[in-house]
Design a protein that fits this description.
- The protein contains 25 helices and two strands.
- With about 650 residues, it is mainly alpha-helical.
């Protein structure tokens, strides 16, 4: 059963190849159903492999399936192999399971798109790359999957490249991720130089020998890997690509920027946990950056007006929670929150897509309102996602977030306080979104009628063509879109059961991966209950504040949405200003002086010297025999003089 692991990435790859060869002929909806079937088959193969893993003794749940030897070169040898262990299978199941639901949703969402088959071709390629990332048994295979999902992200974010904003967003995502990829690549070089291997598992693997590294070397590798993780998982200061990536189709936002790709950095940090424990300073950096990112992004989300940008900043914030958990050594809590986050954030993004679809491409929340009666399935499932991310018990987000906050309290009280404030802000901005979209008066009627009230229409962030058309009543989405919403709502509501006390809890399942590095909380039960109560009070305060402002207050809501927060504290503009001003000037200087006069000058100078010397030596080649005879005679005299001087005769 464990040998079925090769089918997990092979099926999406087969789907990609079939769509590449015959996708245009298949057309709509056959291309979508084929892609969905391939990812669903991958999920089934994952279940079979998972069952085989559970059949093994819990201390021997590690299996390497080698496909072929890829790079044999002296002491450097890399196999294309898959590592089957509890961590990789936990990732596989939620990547393929949520991915299959998003593929199904996309069949309805992308209906009528002229490049329907191309979209699903990219989705299958992304699924293959993501599965190679999480299943690879060495850093190089992981890096190839890492680059694959980066390329697919570019293709999918800029899928509607006819819009300049989408084309720019795709390029921004690609370039920003290259900064992180540099860190990952240098970490690979340093790992091989230090340990002579890139393989994860086994006695010869680098994780087993990470403790033997000098602390400075371990710290360097860990921080470089964190740079890569920060790029892919949108942590400060490399988060800037993710909010703009909302220009892609909504299923892309759900699949790549909520449920799978952005969690790759968290997975990488969890995978190299022995290395992190060999460099405690790296854990401190990760926890501080995670907490800072969580709070920063939460403050930005409170003032966004685009329904998807609220969720984008929310994703950045929740990823910060996961890195906070990694930094305080709560690896299981990080993975637990990653899984529950995949459930409720995919649900929220797909719900947002359903709203956009029902409102004829409208994304500005000020043009919405009162949709719960017209879109009952979308509204009901979205509310489940809201309660889950806000941390209301017994929904899934409560359990995973509470574990992270408890671990933070046990490690550093300041980090815990930042986490609690972030939880309050999360409840506030998600409640704000729900109230603006599904409750209150139906402002979409005013929008279609051409109203210009400040509350509804001032500075619209999007001007869809439908907004200029005749009024149209919002409608519920088709079953291909609502069925995934219902399934994800069930998972978002009950996902907390994964780590409740019991034999098959997530912590017990992941224990062989983290061994003695599991975070043991030294907190009495009474204190744990008090901490949960404090967080719960904060969540209630956030919900009530949003209700008072957006459902009860007669004051314009804009007064509670500072422009500075809507512009993300001006961070993005500051980066653009720097790289467009001093950064560009420095680049021009280095290009002109260091590259033009230094490197190019040295190369061209040597070439000029050789060319000039050759031109002068060419003058000696006259073509006259008498000249050559003169040179030969002169040479003979010089040789004779040399030997006479050496022998002392002269």
């Amino acid at each position: 059963m464990l040998s079925a692991v090769w089918l997990i990435p092979a099926l999406p790859l087969a789907g990609f190849l079939i769509l590449l060869a015959a996708g245009r002929k298949l057309g709509e909806p056959a291309a979508g159903w084929l892609a969905t079937a391939m990812v669903t088959g991958s999920f089934v193969a994952g279940l079979v492999t998972f069952a085989g893993l559970l059949g093994e003794d819990e201390h021997h749940r590690q299996f390497v399936f080698t496909v072929f030897e890829w790079l044999p070169s002296g002491s450097f040898s890399v196999d294309v192999g898959f590592l089957v262990d509890p961590l990789s299978m936990a990732m596989v199941l939620f990547v393929t399971g949520v991915g299959a639901l998003i593929h199904l949703y996309s069949i309805g969402y992308m209906h009528g798109d002229p490049r329907f088959h191309t979209f699903f071709l990219y989705l299958n390629l992304f699924a293959f790359s993501m599965l190679m990332l999480v299943l690879g048994d060495n850093l190089l295979i992981t890096f190839l999957g890492w680059e694959g999902v980066g390329a697919c992200s570019y293709l999918l974010v800029s899928f509607w490249f006819e819009r300049n904003s989408a084309a720019v967003a795709g390029k921004k995502a690609f370039v920003t991720n290259r900064v992180g990829d540099w860190g990952f690549m240098v970490a690979i070089f340093l790992t091989f130089a230090s340990l002579g291997t890139l393989t994860y598992a086994g006695e010869e693997g680098f994780l087993e020998n990470a403790g033997a590294l000098p602390e400075a070397t371990a710290l360097g590798i860990a921080l470089l890997l964190f740079v890569g993780a920060a790029g892919k998982s949108a942590q400060l200061p490399l988060y800037v690509w993710l909010p703009d990536a909302m220009e892609g189709p909504t299923p892309v936002s759900a699949l790549i920027h909520a449920a799978t790709m952005v969690t790759a950095g968290v997975y990488l940090m969890a995978r190299v946990n022995p290395l992190l424990d060999a460099a405690p300073a790296a854990l401190t950096v990760i926890s501080v950056m995670g907490a800072a990112t969580a709070l920063f992004a939460a403050t930005c989300a409170v003032a966004q007006r685009d329904i998807k940008k609220v969720l984008a900043y929310s994703t950045v914030s929740q990823l910060g929670y996961m890195f906070l958990a990694i930094g305080v050594g709560a690896y299981v809590a990080a993975i637990f929150h990653m899984i529950t986050h995949a459930f409720f954030k995919a649900l929220l993004f797909l719900g947002a897509g359903s709203v956009i679809h029902g409102l004829h491409d409208e994304q500005d929340m000020r043009r919405m309102g009162g949709l719960r009666k017209l879109m009952p399935i979308t509204a009901g499932t979205f509310i489940v996602g809201w309660l889950a991310i806000a941390g209301i018990p017994p929904f899934s987000g409560f359990w995973s977030k509470d574990e992270i906050l408890a671990a933070a309290w046990d490690s550093n009280r300041l980090l815990w306080l930042v986490g609690v404030i972030t939880a309050l802000l999360t409840a506030y901005y998600m409640s704000r979104q729900v109230f603006l979209v599904f409750f209150g008066p139906p402002r979409w009627q005013e929008a279609h009628a051409g109203a210009t009230s400040e509350e509804a229409l001032a500075e619209p962030e999007h001007e869809p063509a439908a907004a200029q058309a005749a009024p149209a009543t919002p409608h519920e989405s088709p079953p291909t879109m609502t069925v995934p919403l219902v399934v994800l709502a069930v998972l978002a509501a009950g996902g907390g059961l994964l780590n409740l006390p019991g034999v098959l809890t997530l912590e017990h399942f992941l224990e062989p991966v983290f061994e003695d590095r599991l975070h043991e909380l030294d907190i009495p039960a009474g204190i744990l209950l008090s901490l949960a109560a404090v967080t719960g009070v904060g969540v209630v305060i956030g919900i009530l504040a949003a209700r008072a402002i957006y459902l009860r207050s007669t004051q314009p809501a804009d007064r509670f949405e500072p422009e500075l927060l809507r512009r993300a504290w001006g961070f993005d503009q500051a980066l653009a200003g720097f790289f467009g001003g001093p950064g560009r000037a420095f680049a021009n200087f280095t290009s002109r002086v260091l590259d033009g006069r230094g490197i190019d000058g040295a190369v061209n100078g040597i070439a000029t010297l050789v060319r000039g010397g050759g031109s002068r030596l060419r003058l000696t080649q006259t073509g006259y025999v008498r000249n050559y005879a003169l040179f030969m005679g002169g040479g003979a005299v010089l040789l004779l003089a040399f030997f006479l001087l050496r022998t002392g005769v002269a």
